[in-house]
């Protein structure tokens, strides 16, 4: 039996198996696919080579990277000061390399604001980034493409610092921050109770509804998670986070027909999401649309590289179902290079051997 595994560094001590997702009987190879458990908030992407890197010391394993260009589309070929602001841990300051790239490393789950406000020639910029190290995924890198507006341009608009929290009453923010603290302690039910209080204080709190869905996902309460994401989308219909998380929830619920249009809509908002392409590939494969699934899985690997290694196992299943045994073996070998200590490594090596023998 060949199944994509939930990574060993998942947040939960007890991985959640969603159930049989795709099964194909191929000579010499019986394949069963289980889904991953993951929630994301922005697009995961590789760190630019040569980027100036700053370790925040926050104790996490995720990263935020960015590339800065001017309003004309040209890269800013000098060092720029970039500040990472948090609501509870203070600020961290970094500078870009000479090509406008920067990276903040060592980030735990939480809400951050990337701020550029010391450049005399440009309008201030700020961007909210919600980071999570999800169950079922390795550490993530969240990539920003930043365009700075020249001062004096009529269309230039000053950045609004922490805009998503601008209208949130203080009592609601207190409950939201309390929920974040509970989530870090893996007290997901406690986080849920705090988020409900935040929503009671401010019923239009999109971020709180999205986080509520995330916490329900971690408890494997999938229907409640889907309801929370739907509530978030009623307030902000184009929320990328709520869209992609709702798509993932529906994949886990085996509602592939519903998941596909939701994930496609999310990818229209951000087609650089490796996780989005991965789960769309799963939904399409389980709907029998193998050619489309292959395209999405290849895109997830292109964007997420080794972080999306589970896509290799899915592609092996698709290629085996076509009788493309060499391609299937190649995908499994690629997977083992990235996960040599996986619990079923020996079984995979035996499967590779049989695939190669039957292809001779």
Describe the structure concisely.
The protein has 11 helices and 10 strands. It has helices at 170-184, 188-201, 206-218, 222-235, 240-252, 256-269, 274-286, 290-304, 310-322, 325-338, 345-359, and strands at residues 22-26, 29-33, 52-55, 62-70, 81-86, 91-95, 101-107, 110-116, 125-131, 141-148. The strands form 3 sheets. A 4-stranded mixed sheet has the order 3-7-4-10, with no helix packed on it. Strands 6-5-8-9 form a 4-stranded antiparallel sheet, with no helix packed on it. It has a two-stranded antiparallel sheet with strand order 1-2.
Can you describe this structure?
- There is one protein chain.
- With 360 residues, the protein is an alpha+beta fold.
- The protein folds into three domains: 22-34 and 273-359, Serine Threonine Protein Phosphatase 5, Tetratricopeptide repeat (Alpha Horseshoe); 52-164, Immunoglobulin-like; 168-258, Serine Threonine Protein Phosphatase 5, Tetratricopeptide repeat, CATH 1.25.40.10.
- 42% of the residues lie in helices and 18% in strands.
- It is built from eleven helices and ten strands.
- The chain has a four-stranded mixed β-sheet, with no helix packed on it. A four-stranded antiparallel β-sheet has the order 6-5-8-9, with no helix packed on it.
- A hairpin with an 8-residue loop joins β8 and β9.
- α4 packs antiparallel against α5 (240-252), α8 runs antiparallel to α9 and α9 (310-322) packs antiparallel against α10 (325-338).
- The model is unreliable at 1-51 and 153-162 (pLDDT under 50).
């Amino acid at each position: 039996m060949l199944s994509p595994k939930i990574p060993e560094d998942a947040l939960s001590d007890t991985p959640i198996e969603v159930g049989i997702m795709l099964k194909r009987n191929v000579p010499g190879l019986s394949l069963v696919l289980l889904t991953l458990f993951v929630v994301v908030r922005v697009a995961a992407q590789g760190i630019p080579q040569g980027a100036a890197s700053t370790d925040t010391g926050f104790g996490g394993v995720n990263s935020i990277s960015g590339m800065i260009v001017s309003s004309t589309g040209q890269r800013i070929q000098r060092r720029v000061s970039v500040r990472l602001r948090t609501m509870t841990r203070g600020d961290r300051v970094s500078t870009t390399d000479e090509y406008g790239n920067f990276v903040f490393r060592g980030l735990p789950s939480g809400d951050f604001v990337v701020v550029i406000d010391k450049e005399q020639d440009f309008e201030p910029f700020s961007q909210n980034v919600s980071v999570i190290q999800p169950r079922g995924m390795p550490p993530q890198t969240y990539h920003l493409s930043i365009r700075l507006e020249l001062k004096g341009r009529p269309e230039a608009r000053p950045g609004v610092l922490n805009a998503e929290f601008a209208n949130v009453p203080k009592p609601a923010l207190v409950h939201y921050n309390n929920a974040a603290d509970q989530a870090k302690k893996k007290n997901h039910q406690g986080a849920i109770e705090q988020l409900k209080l935040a929503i009671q204080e401010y019923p239009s709190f999109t971020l709180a509804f999205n986080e509520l869905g995330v916490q329900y996902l971690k408890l494997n309460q999938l229907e409640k998670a889907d309801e929370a994401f739907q509530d978030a989308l009623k307030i902000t219909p184009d929320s990328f986070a709520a869209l992609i998380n709702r798509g993932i929830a529906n994949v886990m619920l085996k509602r592939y027909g519903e998941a596909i249009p939701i994930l496609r809509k999310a990818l229209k908002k951000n087609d650089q999401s490796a996780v989005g392409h991965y789960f769309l590939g799963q939904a399409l494969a389980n709907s029998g649309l193998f050619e489309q699934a292959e395209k999405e899985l290849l895109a997830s690997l292109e964007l997420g590289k080794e972080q999306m290694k589970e896509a290799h196992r899915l592609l092996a299943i698709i290629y085996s179902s076509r009788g493309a045994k060499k391609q299937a073996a190649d995908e499994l070998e690629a997977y083992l290079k990235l996960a040599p200590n996986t619990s079923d490594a020996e079984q995979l090596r035996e499967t590779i051997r049989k695939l190669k023998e039957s292809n001779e």
